[in-house]
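Aim 2 progress update. The chain analyzed this quarter is reproduced below.
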Amino acid sequence: MGSDFDPPQARAVAVRAGASRAAVSGRITLAQLARLPQVAFNRSYDLRQATDAAFEAAGLRPTVAVEGAEMDAVLRFVERGLGVAVVPATILLDRPGLQAARLVRPALTRTAALSLRAGATPDAATRAMRALVFQVSARLTAPGAELAEFVVPA
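Predicted structure tokens:
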């Protein structure tokens, strides 16, 4: 789809229920996170795999309170106070009911990417999605943006 796009890389944050004026209101280590009830993604979800690998590498065994099949389900479980979840910082933009802490030691990141089969011509829907991704990426990585320190071009 062109080489003029640096995919955004979002830091992972731990979120819990509760509104906060600051999008990210502190830091949490993996060891601290492991002591809290987790709202986890399905084991096939890439962020769950990365989080599980980080826990395993640190010799930690978190307690999973409930699993959600996709992002919206996980966030709704968290908003209802069932536990904490590790998610990309980008989800904080439209979720005022969540309070987040930056995940440190280790920090986890997630990269968004676009791909198109070699030789394929993008149709109108693909071009529209590409334009939206470029727009959102520019908004998230702009200097002074609310989450600029957590979402950067890769």
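The two ends are 17 Å apart (CA to CA). The longest helix spans residues 124-141. These observations will guide the mutagenesis experiments scheduled for the next reporting period.
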